[in-house]
Fold this protein.
Amino acid sequence: MKMLFVILVCISLNAIAQAQENPGFISIDCGAPNGYHDDNLDIYYTIDTGFVESGKNMQISSKYIDRVPMQQLMNLRCFPNGTRNCYTLRPTQGKSKRYLIRASFFYGNYDTLSQTPTFDLYIDVNYWITVKDPSNYTYEEIIYTTSRDYIQVCLVNRGSGVPFISALELRTLDNSTYDTSAGALQTSWRYNIGSKTTYRHPQDDYDRIWEGQSFNWTTITNKTNVDSLRSTNNAYKVPLEVLMTGQQSLDNISSSLKLFWISSEPTYKWYLFFHFAEFQVLRSGQLRRFRVYVNDNKLITTVTPEYLKPVTVSTFPFDGTVLNFSITSVTSQSSLPPFLNAVEWFRSIDLPHSTTDLNDGTSSAK
Ligand SMILES: *[C@@H]1O[C@H](CO)[C@@H](O)[C@H](O)[C@H]1NC(C)=O
Ligand SMILES: *[C@@H]1O[C@H](CO)[C@@H](O)[C@H](O)[C@H]1NC(C)=O
Ligand SMILES: *[C@@H]1O[C@H](CO)[C@@H](O)[C@H](O)[C@H]1NC(C)=O
Ligand SMILES: *[C@@H]1O[C@H](CO)[C@@H](O)[C@H](O)[C@H]1NC(C)=O
Ligand SMILES: *[C@@H]1O[C@H](CO)[C@@H](O)[C@H](O)[C@H]1NC(C)=O
Ligand SMILES: *[C@@H]1O[C@H](CO)[C@@H](O)[C@H](O)[C@H]1NC(C)=O
Ligand SMILES: *[C@@H]1O[C@H](CO)[C@@H](O)[C@H](O)[C@H]1NC(C)=O
């Protein structure tokens, strides 16, 4: 009887643990000795078992242990053997869904060699990106749709040190979001404008990382009624904490919000997603209307945000060496300056090889 009781308790505890997992998430703390709940992020992290068959678990140098910003960076899994070592993710949502996949790295002198490696990441059979100098915490993030019911993230040795990974996360997105002509989207920046605070889960259902960022513009905020945004938010589900701060142009309504950035590769195709939420009650006769342009004069659209109704504007793909956007009032109609609450920059990743063209084992590293 006692024996039976113990078994029953184990089963029910297991069932609770299952139920508490974050739906649509796969969260692997690579190299960790056990799974756990990260209370700050409200995310359950699991160990590598079942996702990868090679490599070994290591811990970063004790010198860095107390200084890491999150527990996921304390351990890592390294791959001293073989050119190509892969994690296989099997999302319960299955194929033909859009996923955000994030791989995090922190070297932390785990091998006491004080030599950070450089290595390639592949997503299924295609080259994704090269991880360079992960001596500081860094991550690479891709938005990816697959036609198979599993996704492989592979670390490829290119002869410049042993590849390793600290954390690997998959988040299921709403299929209507980030719909572009690109094979996949690599995140370059994601800003929570007019704020010093960085948000991710639990504020963000999709666990995107919104970095607090202020430019030389005027910060505006209105925390009253922010809860109403919850019911009117769109499929992008930008967190309310991110939407309720923003910045508007500095001087007067005829000055615009402008930013430029430099591309390391002129052939990159860029896609921007702007998020706007009007949180000022407009008096009768007042109107806020602005136009979004990229690369000086290429019009994306005209926006007239409605009170507490978030709008997302995405660009067509564009390229260049010096790139820019501007948000400019339609001065003949608008009585208020243009503003911006959040913005995301992506560049396209080409996926020349189809997963059905090649067997997993046969693709080779460049
Ligand atoms: C790497 O290969 C060597 C020799 O086959 C083996 O002894 C070692 O356990 C392997 N290490 C890992 C991490 O797979
Ligand atoms: C999701 O979107 C992708 C890409 O647009 C499409 O191929 C797929 O059929 C969609 N899946 C579902 C379940 O709607
Ligand atoms: C991170 O980068 C900064 C500046 O680039 C450097 O001073 C610092 O030592 C780096 N931290 C680690 C842990 O390598
Ligand atoms: C911000 O922009 C204004 C107007 O363009 C300029 O006068 C001011 O010096 C700028 N401030 C900073 C800190 O760059
Ligand atoms: C508005 O700002 C622009 C750009 O700073 C300036 O050129 C223009 O003179 C200003 N207009 C008024 C009416 O202040
Ligand atoms: C802030 O929001 C409240 C509630 O919607 C509104 O009454 C107030 O006018 C807003 N404040 C500003 C400065 O827009
Ligand atoms: C904006 O982008 C265009 C196209 O790349 C470029 O010609 C122009 O110089 C840029 N302007 C600014 C202000 O950065």
Remarks:
- Confidence is low (pLDDT under 50) at residues 1-19, 360-366.
